Fold:
Amino acid sequence: MISGVIDLIFFFDHFVTGTCALYSPYARMIAPTTPTLWLGGVYFFGFWCAYSLDLLALYISINRFFMILFPIKAKLIFEQTFYYTMAFMACLAAAPAWFHIISLAYFTLISNEYTNNIPIAVFTNVPIKGYEKTATNNSVIILVVVSSATFAMNLMTFGGIMYKIRGHTIKKTEIKMAIYSVFLFLSQQSYTCLFYTGYFGGSFPDLSISYFAKVIKPWAYVIFCLTPAVSLMCLSKNVRSIVLEFVKGRKIGSSQMGTTQIKTIKETIIAPSRRLNQV
Structure:
């Protein structure tokens, strides 16, 4: 739920400040602007969402590992510490880029041979004196540490699954949720790699690499945001049933009229809730 909300917010933020900025008509509408503090908040929020999603992927991988090996104790501990952990992760995601909140950000227009001399908008900020390289350094550190930890936890999770399979004590639900964790990790890493290729590519002799990454990044981001929803639909029978019932109800509503039909739609949509953690 939390990951889905952040996905939606991040998608809107990225769509407005990144994807649409690549289209000349929209770019001319939003750029150039003068540096402002509220745009600095938007700039910071993009970093916060990215860090939060990476930390959530790590949290999910840790959860899967302990739920497989110690299901009863792990469930109790994770339930008791959930809100505290989420609050801590929210603060932790803000820590590496806190200075962006008080920095000024703005949109500017650029046009060169790599954009076919068509103007595009770029969302950037005015770094605070003394913090010019801090954001880049922090991003690299977080990418390496969190990605390595998530990768290691996913490997340990599948090691735990193999151990449980030998004793015939593993449930299909746990295997599928572990696969879900891996899908989430891979989608995030594919986007992150493109993001940093474009980010650091500005220092390459051939800037075409940087601009290519910027063009591909919006499409990678769509995959990044849709992966959790698509993975759950593929792996969870209950989720598929709920979605199909909802779609079926909408079709009934568009093709039939009257009180009886409206009542049927409501009964279809407001069906008895199912446990989403059962796959």
Observations:
- Residues 37-69 form the longest helix (33 residues).
- The chain has two domains: 2-235, 237-279.
- The CA atoms of residues 4 and 154 lie 21 Å apart.
